[in-house]
Write a structure and sequence with these properties.
homotrimer; Rossmann fold
Amino acid sequence: MSAHDPLITITSDFGTADSYVAQMKGVILGVNSRTRLIDVTHEIPPQAVFRAALMLPELLQTFPAGTYHLVVVDPGVGSARRILAAELDGHYFIAPDNGLLDPLLQQATHSRVYELTNSRFWRNEISTTFHGRDIMAPAIAHWSRGATLDEMGEPLSGSPISLPLPEPTMTESEVVGTILYVDHFGNMVSNIRREHVKQWEGSDVDPIIRLESEGSLRFIDSGISETYADSLPGQGLILWGSHGFLEVALNGGNAAAKFKSQAGETLTIY
Amino acid sequence: MSAHDPLITITSDFGTADSYVAQMKGVILGVNSRTRLIDVTHEIPPQAVFRAALMLPELLQTFPAGTYHLVVVDPGVGSARRILAAELDGHYFIAPDNGLLDPLLQQATHSRVYELTNSRFWRNEISTTFHGRDIMAPAIAHWSRGATLDEMGEPLSGSPISLPLPEPTMTESEVVGTILYVDHFGNMVSNIRREHVKQWEGSDVDPIIRLESEGSLRFIDSGISETYADSLPGQGLILWGSHGFLEVALNGGNAAAKFKSQAGETLTIY
Amino acid sequence: MSAHDPLITITSDFGTADSYVAQMKGVILGVNSRTRLIDVTHEIPPQAVFRAALMLPELLQTFPAGTYHLVVVDPGVGSARRILAAELDGHYFIAPDNGLLDPLLQQATHSRVYELTNSRFWRNEISTTFHGRDIMAPAIAHWSRGATLDEMGEPLSGSPISLPLPEPTMTESEVVGTILYVDHFGNMVSNIRREHVKQWEGSDVDPIIRLESEGSLRFIDSGISETYADSLPGQGLILWGSHGFLEVALNGGNAAAKFKSQAGETLTIY
């Protein structure tokens, strides 16, 4: 293996019970047999563009520059939605134009965004239901073996679709955030980032954080922890997750189950 | 990595919670460290030979010629069932002789089918419960590094076991098919292929398609769509799936859940 | 690909719905792009150290010598628990010091155990919640490209944490074991190994085996089978599993479901 064999990550909502993901891999390897393929996840909830979009910045922070990323969460397949190829801070992405790349594009210091238009880089027969296999997989494989954005498409006309990600509501005395999703461990990940809680920095008084579900209080705590070990086993705590969002967690347990709570609920800091 | 390092796909009903799949991979890599391993799925329902058999043609259509495919859905492990090694249109398969390769063999234009008999290409100790690890994994690894079918076994005597896949019932006025399985998205995949609906080609009148479950009508539509976008969000539609079978789908939703239906139900065209 | 490109297996309780596993892979590939990564499983029940610990000997028996193994089941992350790097009979392991390596260490004929202490081989920023990504992943990648244990850490002071694995109770007339876990097929794996049933070897009388759940008899059989095919379809049987533990299984079905039983129940031989 050469250190220069291209790396392609794959993220989708295809699940792993069918052969959909393998079909994309077969097509990629048929175009460029030297690629090394890494699954991110295929358990994005069906058509949950927003969940995949939030995951992509974590890939930018951990994979080496020069990695290719194929992202197929594509509820608009078969319609006129565009397919994007974007170079972002040294990483290469192909994804449908439905908001998937929006958080990345907002953070990127350097980006070039193209629309894939040249069918010479696609499979001969294009189904109407599976562009991940028929357009995006062969395109990223050709890209990884040297085809250029100018050969494969055209600079995007207009802006890419933006992702309607809810932002916390900020007032002088409180920040009202939302639980975006619950991860495998039951950790409840909110949309509150460090930049939203600057007003408590250097203060003598710890902020109070309150989790409410269906209008009733489920958990309340003061202060933000840095590690699970800051609370006793079985007790809830508020901490910064590994991706920089504020989480409600449970030391040694499942917070969402214990607090009978879920995505969409309200997290308030005051 | 050389473009000629052999590619081996793996399909099984082992699930991914235990180490069974990894054990097979370890054995393969111990015999031929140059192989590149691709998971198709390990979530074939336990011992559902038929589900894996229907998946294999999709691999033939997407993976490059020269790919090896290990298929371990093996309810007869430990009994006298044979183990097959088959060369099929430039692809190489190892699977138990229980019908898994039947759909492939019926479509293949060129095939050679052997029975694995030479234990020199197996692990030293053969368990009675895990021939995937002890016989098939080392055999496919040896095959991928140059062992020949004639070294590893003998031409199959008699026919391979055939798969009892239900065919649609055809009359002059209607085609009565069956839902074979429901995929990750809730799409209901039937056994009806394009060859079964030729009588409506070029006709002015669209066929009517009716889904019945437990004897009651669940969905009815006229015409076959080419894409999900042909129906309104939340509405059912009938379309050709990416593998060539007729599907009942739901634009932006789960058809099987909405129509309270499942594998085994009846789909009629008239 | 060179046959000498290092192989790294990954075992965790991270699930596959989030990007946690991919983040570790990105970090590994950023340090050593030549590694080949193999997933064992990421479905260890959350924080079930014991389940992963029992799986590791199966990797030693199937992967080639020289394989690296990253094992991240880490309920103590963020606390003062140590992180181990161990060379065991030609395999290389990195895991938190919480009992994960205990069964391996007890069986190994040659072992060297170090504590990872040199942060030069870690990521620049160390989170308090994800040492798998920030410490263990980069460390195993550096190890796989030539860093030595003496560079990365220090010989372990004191003993590693031991795993409280229940042993069967042995009397002259009976062996009382425990169901350790239930696998994907519903096979119920006990803690009884061949060494525990020597008293029946060469005897004319087959042992009787009895499965009890919540105090009531669920299954009773005489004799230990060598293969599923020794019983009729749909019937229970007792056999040696592929890993050397005694199992309760069902020919063609799910034993745990049929016998309404689960991990923790009692299996008695007499």
